[in-house]
Amino acid sequence: MLKDKAIIVAVKSKQNYEHFEESLEELKSLLSFAGAELKFTVIQKSHGIIPSTLIGKGKIEEVKNLADHMEANMIVFLNHLTPTQFKNLEREFGNFKVIDRVALILDIFAQRARTIEGKLQVELAQLNYLLPRIVGYGKMLSRLGGGIGTRGPGEKKLTIEKRKILKRINYIRNKIKEVEKNRNIQRKSRIKSNYHLVSIVGYTNAGKSTLFNLLTKSNVMVDSRAFTTLDPKTELAYIDDDTKILVTDTVGFVRNLPKELLEAFKATFEELIYSDLHLLIFDISNTNFEAHIKETVKLLEEIGASFVPQIKVFNKIDKVHEEYLLKIKEKYPDFIFISAKNKINIDILKREIKKTLLKYENKSQTQKCN
Q: Within a domain: residue 233?
């Protein structure tokens, strides 16, 4: 299989000015995670977005010529493209594949899906994304499998395709409901076990799976690529000789996680709501960790899980200089600083987990008595 060669097109505007550089770097990483080769990045500063094509005719021609020269086959937009913009840009770019950041993330999720549940959730997200873009979006139809149908001219063909997609969406939603029933049974059995459930939460590639393996003595695949963990894994962990808990490794976050994924992975994210404690883990060596903290807190609020007690953790302290570490410790005194890879300060983290769980358990019992 030939590797996709991509050109990134990013429009810098008032709407994305504050986080533009971070978002662009994240997109480059995501492109690499997806297995594509970045050939060039085109940045256009804009005071106003062109509704029909996002970028002007002159810039479209410039990108086309650049793609020809660089032998690229794919144009990746940092900005979210509306269905109309997709339609018009696909026509303008002819044989070049056109996708945006959302489609790229969905593609990575599709690559990472391993279980039946994960595959169903990703396909549901892809179909919900595709549905409003079906008119004039034949290329994506021809790329997607699963009995959806292939590209064809005429309104009748498009109507048939739309009907097939809606039918498939309903089928997947029913299958996911079955999975949710099984998850609820598992959840009830965990509640009966009287073990506290601790979920590891954070950005993708922050070291969540490494910490999970360390706490549970498991062998979950650790991968530097994005979204390696799509299905939450739960295992028993010993905090000390007297304390056992259940630990869950969850889906990694990214900035502005696509709403299609939030809907499709609702059952997965619900695990966070039923947790007794969240370990919010961040990569201290990542220059954008402050934005990651804000995004993680925001996403927990969006899914209704912000009420769960939290322990905030900076991971990968082995990757930063001592002077920098001291500065961050001074700024974030309520964080615990660890290296999951090198097993640094894990005992401190375990003690804090036990202390926090006991604190909220006693608080809960007091409220019941009152």
A: yes
**Confidence class of residue 232 from pLDDT cuts 50, 70 and 90?**
low
- The rounded distance, in Å, linking the Cα atoms of 276 and 2 is 46
- Strands 196-202, 277-283: pairing kind: parallel
Q: The tokens 């939030």 sit on which residue?
A: 262
Write out pLDDT tens, residues 8-45.
999 998 777 777 888 898 899 889 888 899 999 999 98
Q: What's the rounded Cα separation, in Å, for the pair 308 and 304?
A: 9
Backbone angles phi, psi at 96, to 5 degrees: -80, 140
Look at residues 108, 128, 159 and tell me which one is the last residue of a structural domain.
Answer: 108
**Res 355: pLDDT:** 94
pTM: 0.75
Closest CA to 9 of 96, 91, 107, 127: 96
Same domain, 56 and 117: no
- Would residue 180 count as lying in a domain? no
Q: How far is CA 47 from the centre of its chain?
A: 30
Q: Is 187 part of any domain?
A: no
Clarify whether residues 274 and 304 are in a common domain: yes
Which of 12-21, 153-162, 164-173 has the lowest average pLDDT? Answer: 153-162
Over residues 128-152, mean pLDDT: 53
**Count: domains in the chain:** 3
- Give the relative orientation of helices 155-192 and 116-130 as an angle to the nearest 10 degrees: 140
Euclidean distance between CA atoms 155 and 158, whole angstroms: 5
Position 149 scores a pLDDT of 29
Among 82, 108, 134, residue at a domain's last position: 108
Q: Where are the beta strands (DSSP E) in the chain?
A: 5-12, 37-45, 74-77, 97-100, 196-202, 233-238, 244-249, 277-283, 310-315, 336-337
10 shares its domain with 46: yes
> Is 185 contained in some domain?
no
Distance CA 163, CA 182 (A): 29
* Rg of the chain taking only CA atoms, in angstroms: 23
CA 126 to chain centre: 14
Q: What number of CA atoms fall less than 13 Å from residue 162's CA on the CB side?
A: 13
More confident residue, 3 or 147: 3
State the amino acid at position 267 in one-letter form.
A
Domain region containing 131: 113-175
